[in-house]
TrEMBL record:
Catalytic residues identified in the record: C148
Catalytic activity: N-acetyl-L-glutamate 5-semialdehyde + phosphate + NADP(+) = N-acetyl-L-glutamyl 5-phosphate + NADPH + H(+)
Gene for this chain: argC
The keyword Transcription belongs to this UniProt entry's keyword annotation: no
Listed SUPFAM superfamilies: Glyceraldehyde-3-phosphate dehydrogenase-like, C-terminal domain, NAD(P)-binding Rossmann-fold domains
Pathway: Amino-acid biosynthesis; L-arginine biosynthesis; N(2)-acetyl-L-ornithine from L-glutamate: step 3/4
Top-level EC class: oxidoreductase
Domain Semialdehyde dehydrogenase NAD-binding: 3-140
Protein name per Swiss-Prot or TrEMBL: N-acetyl-gamma-glutamyl-phosphate reductase
Length: 343
């Protein structure tokens, strides 16, 4: 059995990690770490866990993570790096859910986040976008789990970037996210009356995921992209739907696209290509799938890609577990096969 510790276990991503790892046949959770819930059992703080688990939250101590083979850090950006460093020095495999180990270039990280205290560790970490970077993930001691928006955007664009079918300038990524993407924030802007029956854009032309998407596309596909990324807040709890617009540089039709996407993702269980219909949030909600559909708009010579994920699963906890499966040479699907909720 793989022994796992979760730091930041009381947050939305931490709880989702616990929920998923409890059903993973090869994992034993050895510690769940939270300062706000210290010494409380999970079936008291979150009654959903009654009769399933009575794991007790504990405060961070070296002894709490020493027995683990893998540590998941589900902490805020900037704070996570301290805990990742401790886990790394103890020789553990560390999967970080924050942005702290997603970048190779510490200057790019600093521009959107904060000064990195351990820039040398960025060279030792693998970007955990499983379908694209499996080779690096297999041998890494630190895995930087991707942002939720970048997961939907890069997986949606990857086959077109690889086959050099689109203009690398002027790509538009228009993404809509459920509110759990913001974590357990209690700010006024995230209260029910502000969100329900409302829909709004935010961080227009300045969201920090723009640089993550750009850096990764450049490193993974050798393409220096110039793109616009606009996130929106949907009045739903989970899910991201990204609509991506790019200009075609070759004259192709829909059947070519179907072939290209099916070929690119032919061995990928967690990618579902929609050839005739279009993906919807409800198909992926509660699953580790990314659903991708597309059309060509001949009038404007644009390809329009629709890419959907559950932000807490493929966009966070599920992809982190997929990374763990890769790193520990398990079948990638272990513990992650789920059908989307019907409603
Ligand atoms: N929500 C999402 O859809 C996604 C989130 N992520 C990333 O995953 C990470 C966790 O996100 P999420 O669960 O949503 O966030 P939450 O705000 O829901 O939870 C974060 C947890 O971190 C702990 N924490 C907060 N501040 C500190 C601190 N100063 N020191 C130590 N622990 C602290 C808290 O637990 P306690 O106070 O009990 O210790 C809290 O429960 C973040 O980096 C986020 O960006 C990534 C992809 C998607
Ligand atoms: C709806 C919402 O607020 N979403 C978050 C992104 C969540 C995420 O996955 O990104 P990180 O892991 O980089 O935090 C945001 O826009 O900041």
């Amino acid at each position: 059995m793989i022994k796992a510790s979760i730091i930041g276990a009381s947050g939305y991503v931490g709880l989702e990690l616990i929920r998923l790892l409890l059903r993973h046949p090869e994992v034993e959770i050895v510690s769940i770490i939270s300062s706000s819930s210290n010494q409380l059992s999970i079936d008291k703080t979150n009654p959903q866990f009654k009769k399933v688990s009575a794991l007790v939250f504990e405060e961070f101590k070296i002894e709490a993570i020493e027995k683990a083979d893998v540590i998941f850090c589900a902490l805020p950006h900037g704070i996570s790096q301290e805990y990742v460093k401790i886990g790394y020095d103890l020789g553990k495999v560390v999967i970080d859910l924050s942005a702290d180990f997603r970048y190779k270039d510490s200057q790019k990280y600093a521009k959107d986040y904060t000064e990195h205290k351990y820039p040398e560790l960025l060279q030792k970490s693998a970007y955990g976008l499983c379908e694209i970077n499996r080779g690096e993930i297999k041998n890494a001691q630190i895995i930087g789990n991707p942002g939720c928006y970048p997961t939907s955007a890069i997986l949606g664009l990857a086959p077109l970037l690889k086959s050099k079918l689109i203009d690398k300038n002027g790509i538009i990524i228009d993404s809509k996210s459920g509110v759990s993407g913001a974590g357990k924030k209690s700010d006024f802007a995230y209260s029910f009356c502000e969100l329900d029956e409302n829909f709004k854009a935010y961080s227009v032309a300045k969201h920090r995921h723009t640089s993550e998407i750009e850096e990764k596309c450049s490193l993974l596909f050798g393409e220096d992209l110039n793109l616009s990324f606009t996130p929106h807040l949907l009045p739903v709890k989970r899910g991201i739907l990204s609509t991506i617009y790019a200009t075609l540089v070759k004259n192709i039709d829909k059947s070519n696209l179907v072939e290209i996407y099916n070929e690119f993702y032919k061995d990928e269980y967690f990618v579902r290509i929609f050839e005739n219909e279009l993906p919807e949030l409800k198909y992926v909600r509660g699953t580790n799938f990314v659903d991708i559909g597309f059309e060509i708009d001949k009038k404007t010579n644009k390809v329009i890609i629709i890419s959907c994920i559950d932000n807490l699963i493929k966009g966070a906890a599920g992809q982190a577990i997929q990374n763990m499966n890769i790193r520990f040479s398990l079948d990638e699907k272990t513990g992650l096969v789920m059908v989307g909720e019907y409603f």
